[in-house]
Amino acid sequence: MEPKNTIFLVLLLSTILQSSSATPNRSELDRFIVTSCQTTRYPLLCVHTLSAYATMIRHKNDQDLAQTALTISLSRARSVAIFVAKLTKETPSFKRREYLAIKDCIEVLGNSVDRLGQSVKELGRAGHAVAGEDFMWKMSNVQTWVSAALTDETTCLDGFSGRAMEGKVKKLIRLKVVHVAQVTSNALALVNHFAEKRSAKIP
Question: Where does the pLDDT of residue 23 fall: very low under 50, low under 70, confident under 90, or very high at 90 and above?
């Protein structure tokens, strides 16, 4: 991790802990979130996002953390898909290439939402798996689907590449899709972390 990110993490943790000093259980949860987020590619975003939904992480364990991260990713991917779809109705004067790029983006974001939705359910089932092989199979499904969802999100941006596509529309969509892709990337990292730790305990 870059030194400046480490400094920001320390400052962020200090702020969070000060705000939750009256509730020891919450302070422990915040430390757990910060430590776990260091396994992700975007740790600052990870801490900021998960701390806002800390009440969903009831048992302070890796599965709850991954489940929450996936649920947030699903929610934000769905919101962005709706936002992009509205653009075609509210801004009818698109150039043909812009319109086609947005149309393709809507399709791949829809795929991303579907895959993340599947992943949230499958991760819940994996947590209740008794047999090691069943757990590994379900986690493999989750990892495959979340990875595919991340690919879908980045594919959306590919359609806006090139100078001809520079403009307000590209900036609006890029800003929102990049954020969702980063949230999804973090969720995938936490899923992988949970899978690795749980697998190590399987005989």
Answer: very low
